Amino acid sequence: MDILNIAKELGGEDFSDMIEDDIREHIEDCGEPFTNEEFEELMQSPTGSDDDVMEDTEARTPSDWTLQKLASIFRQAQVLKDMIVEYDPSMERGIMVTREIMASLKPLQHLFDEAKKR
Questions:
Q1: Structure confidence by residue, pLDDT tens digits, 59-85
Q2: C-alpha span between 105 and 74 (Å, rounded)
Q3: How many Cβ atoms from other residues are within 10 Å of residue 77's Cβ?
Q4: Superkingdom of this entry's organism (predicted)?
Q5: 46-50-51 Cα angle (round to 5)
Q6: Number of helices and strands (H, E) in the chain?
Q7: Rounded CA gap, 112 and 106, in Å?
Q8: Mean pLDDT over residues 87-93, rounded?
Q9: pLDDT range class, residue 15, cuts 50, 70, 90
Q10: pLDDT score at 58
Q11: Side-chain half-sphere of 66: how many Cα atoms within 13 Å?
């Protein structure tokens, strides 16, 4: 695995003794990023109309939140997580930070999931 070789070359805290299972666990814990096909689909899907307003106002996607905007936020979050993993010499801290990023985005993920259903 190339990532494992890079980590061992970097050395330092938590990198020199890293094993492939650590990397796989980290990747699985971060959730699955959107594929290019999913992003293309999001960019081309309609965002709905005023006639499609849901009964539950809490579940309704605010008009400012389009699928494109939400997808852009998730792309940027993935870039940020990748940078943290790449730059942070402490693997443990990097994993903690990326998990917190994912946790903080859960409300937007729910909006995104609801908007996709429409």
A1: 554 567 888 888 899 999 999 999 999
A2: 8
A3: 17
A4: Eukaryota
A5: 100
A6: 6, 0
A7: 10
A8: 92
A9: low
A10: 46
A11: 12
